[in-house]
Amino acid sequence: MVTYPRESLGSLVAMDPAAKRALEGSLARLGRLWDVPGLGSQVTIRTSARLKQSLGSYNASRGEITLAAWLVDGPTPLLNEVLCHEAAHAAARLVHGD
Fold first, then answer.
1. Which runs of consecutive H residues, i.e. helices, occur in 34-75?
2. Using CA atoms, how far apart are residues 32 and 37, in angstroms rounded to an integer?
3. What SS3 state is found at 57?
4. How many angstroms separate the CA atoms of 49 and 71, rounded?
5. Taking a C-beta distance cutoff of 8 angstroms, is the pair 51, 67 a contact?
């Protein structure tokens, strides 16, 4: 696993590469399921230790889903639900625009 100096990361938490690939694969599958082909390629996923009161967020201007860092090691059904919820926001933006 790659480690970074804490001060260079800020609130970001390095995600295990295998976990990141799995989440990106899930995002691409949701894109195919919903017929939104750009979902897997135009939206990025990151984790943040700062998310304490919400489980995830979608930033449309950056095309970025941010998940609470603890979710990656938490219950898989909850992780999938949060990813699906945030991906729905991203898909709606890609399909309908602003």
1. 39-42
2. 6
3. strand
4. 10
5. yes
Q: In Å, what is the CA distance from 98 to each residue of 61, 66, 93?
A: 10, 19, 6
56, 83 contact by CB (below 8 A)? yes
pLDDT tens digits for range 57-87 = 999 999 999 999 999 988 999 999 999 999 9
| Strand ranges across the sheet with 44-48 | 44-48, 64-68, 56-59
Task: Look at residue 65 and give its three-state secondary structure.
Answer: strand
Tell me what the mean pLDDT of segment 28-38 comes to. 95
Task: For residue 77, give both structure tokens.
Answer: 């059904």
Q: What's the first-to-final CA gap in the chain, in angstroms?
A: 38
